[in-house]
Amino acid sequence: MEDGKAVYDLFGKEFTLLQLSDTADTSAFVAAAAAQDTPLTVLSIDNARARDLYQADLVLIRPDQHVAWRGSTLAAPEAEAIVARARGAD
Questions:
Q1: What kind and span of H or E run contains 19?
Q2: What stretches of the chain adopt beta strand conformation (E)?
Q3: How many angstroms separate the CA atoms of 2 and 14, rounded?
Q4: How far is the C-alpha of 30 from the C-alpha of 52, rounded, in Å?
Q5: Cα–Cα distance, 89 to 24 (Å, whole number)
Q6: Sheet with 67-71: strands ordered across
């Protein structure tokens, strides 16, 4: 990051959804996580280098800091399935 921090230092202790574009809609993930009682932190990062690194506008990070999913668009049913799988319910 510009301030010298590693992006990993910004992740929460639970699931983190990186929003790497101000036009990326996080609402499907937020709703899916809430419906499944899954703690989720949305972290908006305006950094072209981070966007290039992940090659997506949205990135779901597991608590162990592994990427569970990445993409740029998402419908609500897909978000529900992705959250379920990422938390081990599927």
A1: strand 15-19
A2: 15-19, 40-44, 58-61, 67-71
A3: 24
A4: 24
A5: 26
A6: 40-44, 15-19, 58-61, 67-71
Backbone conformation region of residue 2, classed left if phi is above 0, alpha if psi is from -120 to 50, else beta: alpha
Q: What crossing angle do the helices spanning 27-35 and 76-86 adopt, rounded to 10°?
A: 50
| Phi then psi dihedrals of residue 10, to 5 deg | -95, -10
pTM over 0.70: yes
Separation between Cα atoms, residue 14 and residue 71, nearest integer Å: 20
Spatial neighbors of 33 by CB under 8 A, at least 6 apart, are 15, 39, 40, 83
| pLDDT tens track for 21-58 | 988 999 999 999 999 999 999 999 888 888 888 899 99
CA 8 to CA 24: how far, in whole Å?
Answer: 20
